[in-house]
Request: fold
Amino acid sequence: MSPVSDRLPVFPWDRLEPLKKTAAAHPGGAVDLSVGTPVDPVPELVRAALTGASDSPGYPTVWGTEAFRDAIVGWSTRRLGAERLSHANVLPVVGSKELVAWLPTQLGLGPGDRVALPRLAYPTYAVGARLAGAEPVEYGSLAELPEDISLLWLNSPSNPTGRVLDAETLRATVAWARERGVLVFSDECYLELGWEAEPVSVLDPAVCGGSYEGIVAVHSLSKRSNLAGYRAAFCVGDSAVLGELLQIRKHGGMMVPAPVQAAAAAALDDDVHVAEQRARYAARREALRGALEGRGFRIEHSEASLYLWATLDEPCWETVARLAEDGVLVAPGDFYGPAGERFVRVAFTATDERVRAAVERLS
Reply:
């Protein structure tokens, strides 16, 4: 039997290691704008909730505490415009990447099934399909979607491009999928980070018509609350789909730790820290965008998310190497598909001091 890993590509970030060393050799050290991991403090109210729940000797439940489910329902109603949600419409997950990677397997997909994903996309959508033995299929628009797919991934705001799909596009896509019995999962983890556009959820009545049949939205607290280290995320949508996943995940023991559930509930119930974090990111985004454009980069899309999708109209690895010599590390666009081979993804998740250093070097 061949190893399962043979189905998978080389882990993309391993390919960046040599240039990481180049950037680190800069006299001022590296400015890492590649991965996009949060660097700002975890909000105090979240840490207090975690500490308060630290005496949790028993097993948590896969479905989560009632307080956590209440917080998910409340936030989804308040922030996404979702209507008539109940606990049956929500499911906590152990970080959104875990869900993306194992969803096709947990849905029972396998050889002969096809999973559609955006042409420029987070690599784990395709990895999840391959882990299940299914076939990943890329698409650029609704017109390019093949009829014979079992699962359709949407991603708005997009990682890596920051592109936002408007309500009309989302509505047409949901209608197309429902006509064909195709399940839609919408990765909306950057929805609260819109800059030049207001992202819309598939759960908005203007998109789904007030019905969650055949649609599930995926959300995370990693970016909006600086909780990447907590692995706290959740799904909202079709109760039948989430009920089936709940049963499967119970058998797999896929539980969000109890203290993390308490912390996540506190984060979802508070909007103040999100606004404060948005302001930090907005300032960093503006500074980096100006510096990149001054260096001759063209920025495309990037109307939302934590990234600038930038190009010098040259092969992406040449751009990455050029910036690494200046001590600035960015992600090559081909990590996200061949269509990104002349772009780089620049994260604005570094500290204010490191962003200032990057701006100086780019200038």
About this structure: The chain has a mean pLDDT of 96. Residues 44 and 273 are 9 Å apart (CA to CA). The longest strand covers residues 215-220. DSSP finds twelve helices and 13 strands in the chain.
